[in-house]
Amino acid sequence: MRGPGRTLFGGTRVHPFGRGWKKYVPLFGLLPTLLIFLAVNLGPSLATFVFSFTDYKGIPGSEWRFIGLQNYIDFFTASNARDKWHSTKLTFIFSLSVTVIQNAIGVFLAVLLNGRIRGKTFYRTVIFMPVVLGVTVVGLTWTLIFNPIYGPAIKVLNWFNMNSAFFGDPDLAMPLVIFIQIWANLGYSLVIFLAGLQAIPDDLYEAGYMDGASAMQTFRYVTWPLLSPVVTVNVLLAIIGSLQTFELIYVLTSGENDYTRTLGMLIFQTAFGGGSGNLIQQNQGYASMLSVVLFVFVFIVTVIMQYYLRRREVQT
After folding, report:
1. In-domain check, residue 4
2. For residues 280, 55, 84 and 179, what is the CA-based torsion angle, rounded to 10 degrees?
3. The domain containing residue 222 runs over which residues?
4. Is 146 inside any structural domain?
5. pLDDT tens, position by position, 133-179
6. CB contact at 8 A, 146 and 153
7. Element spanning 87, H or E
8. The domain that contains 255 carries what CATH number?
9. Per the domain annotation, does 66 fall within a domain?
């Protein structure tokens, strides 16, 4: 009989990978996924960084060359730098508005739907439904609603002898885009807040009620502090998502106006051409530089907010 690790003639069997080879088996299992990640995510990201130092136009057969930091210099010093800073300001306004309003409404609805209310499962489903629909369906639906000629919104305004171009109105376009962005992604925030609320022990609420705490005091001293980790997650997701948004803006406005041109939208139009009257020429080298700038901007904002929110978690 052969014992474990023994050969037919009594010698010790030596595995070709050594004795500790078994601990590397999970790594071999992860290798295909890691290769796909490198090819799909990290590879294009590195290529974008490299192309940010070129004058590549993205036109097949066209010549291109490395120009160093010229794209970055042009962004900060060119004659049209004011337009770029305008897009940066719009991005900041858009992200701040979406983050604050979406999370405030999400907390309110989560507390409401976490209580004893009839039909709360139905309400949760309705609020989460836009997430399932996707950006294109959501954008086209609201485009039809706010159509300035035959949409239902313009008919309601006509009842009061009012008129509007909606997404063509410089004062109304960005608020409408913010509203639709919040409506489309509120379901994410709601689900995460509900998960956080359901993780809070009922004993804490009972203790608060026995001490005579009101509903507002219970929320302030029990619910809100214990929701700190969930708030951190929701705020970071909202910031990162809103700073990079361009798909919804493109579907709603087709990128035809300057008052909804965030950095994400500007990158798309610079890479593939577009804008009002196709004034933005295709320049993928410059668009790559804008992508790097946006990445740095998102990274800095995310790190600052994560540091602040983590400190808040410790303090509470």
Report:
1. no
2. 60
3. 79-315
4. yes
5. 888 899 999 999 998 888 899 999 889 888 888 888 888 999 999 99
6. yes
7. helix 81-113
8. 1.10.3720.10
9. no
Tell the residue number behind the tokens 């970071």, with chain if given: 236
Domain co-membership, 164 together with 252: yes
Of 42, 69, 34, 40, which Cα lies nearest the Cα of 53?
Answer: 69
For the segment 121-142, what is each residue's pLDDT rounded down to a tens digit?
Answer: 898 989 999 988 888 899 999 9
> Which phi-psi region, left, alpha or beta, contains residue 146 (left: φ > 0; alpha: ψ -120 to 50)?
alpha
Tokens of 195: 């998960």
71 domain residue, yes or no: no
Query: Helices in 114-256 by DSSP H: which ranges?
Result: 120-133, 135-145, 152-159, 173-198, 202-210, 215-218, 224-226, 228-243, 247-253
Cβ atoms within 10 Å, residue 232: 17
Structural domain total, the chain: 2
Residue 257: half-sphere exposure toward Cβ, Cα within 13 Å:
18
Residue pair 286/71 in contact by the 8 Å Cβ criterion: yes
- What count of Cα atoms within 13 Å lies in the side-chain half-sphere of residue 252? 32
Q: What is the pLDDT of residues 272-291, one digit of tens each?
A: 876 655 556 788 888 899 89
Residues 6+ apart with CB under 8 A from 308: none
pTM: 0.82
Residues 39 and 139 in one domain: no
